[in-house]
Amino acid sequence: MTTSQELDERYGRTARGRLPWIIGGAVALAVVIAFGWMTVASSMNSVDADDLGFDVVDEHSVTLRFQVTAPAGSDLVCAVEAQDEEFGVVGWTIVRIPASDAHSQALSVSIPTVATATTSLVNTCWVA
Question: What is the mean pLDDT of the segment spanning 45-50?
Answer without folding.
Answer: 88
